[in-house]
Task: structure prediction
Amino acid sequence: MLTRDIQAQLDALPLQSDQPLIVTDADEVIAQFIVGLEGFLTRNGFWLDLQSFAISGNVKRAEDHSVVERAEVQELLAQFFAADTESLLPVPGAADALSALSKRTQIIVLSNVPQPQRAARQRWLRQHGMDYPLVASAPPAG
Result:
C-alpha cells in the first residue's frame, strides 16, 4: 500500500535519470533480521519455529510451545524494532558489494521497518558502510 509517508519518501529520493537504479531489500539481504529476531524472542521467552516464511503463526512460547496470536506477534515485532533495529548484524559482504555497485548505479534501500524506527535503520546503514537513501515501507499497525 502506498501511504502518504511512503510517497513523501519516494518524492524526496535524489534520483538521476541517467543512471541505473538498484533497489535492495534490507532484511536478509544486507541485515541479518532473523538472527536478530530470534535473539530478541529468546530473551523474552519465545522462539521462532520457521515452518513457513511467515512470522505470524510461527512464534511460540518457550514454556509450552503454544502458538502466539497474531496481535501479540505484532506487539513483539514492534518491541523488537524499537529495541534492536540498530543492533542487527550486517550480512557479510553486503557493504562491499553495494559499494562496488554504487560506482556505476544508484542504490536505494527498501526496509519494512516501522516509521518510528526509520532514523535508527538509517543510522545502522551508515554505521555499517551502507549510507544509501532509505524507504521505510512498513504498513500501518493493526
